[in-house]
Design brief:
single chain; 194 residues; seven-stranded antiparallel beta sheet
Length: 194
Amino acid sequence: MKAASCGCQKDIKVRCLEPKDRKIFFDNWLGLLAFVNDKHKIIKKFGHPKSPVGVKPETIVKIKAKLWEDVNIIDEYIDSAQKLSKTNIQIIKNWKNNVSGYFLIVRHLKKHSVFMHNEKTLYGVLGISCPISDLVPKETLPFTLETVLLPFKGVIIYDSVFVHNNVTIGPNMRKGFNETYSEIKRAKGIVTGL
């Protein structure tokens, strides 16, 4: 499992969230996870973390699995939260429009990393705390993973943790994925908003 925990480098800031947006994301995300955990009692000592520092990725994986089983819990959270601004309410509501499942990271471009989904769609995804290329080096591409893509203030991010699937991709498969990437990019382009 990988979790975003590094800082953006100055020359590639565009590939991850700016610090103020990172704070907005984690304030909302951790609040929602705490609500889900309180309701379903998944992790005993999760509490209400104010920062992702010290929160184990395995813990997030367990809680987010319950969240994505039924996204209507998002509405329950919004109804129960007393201090959410209209902007934050909209951010969280938009998470109901997510894309989940297995993806291949096929490229790291200047503005984002490209996730291929079902060999049909390419998504331009930003890192949260650091560029995804810091977590998944170019040499390891294509890289298989399971995660949930989320809309966030006009860009696409992932739900803070992804699970790597230990699938070995040989040269023939790599060539096939590269051809598929080129075909999809030419026909549909890269989706950069949900």
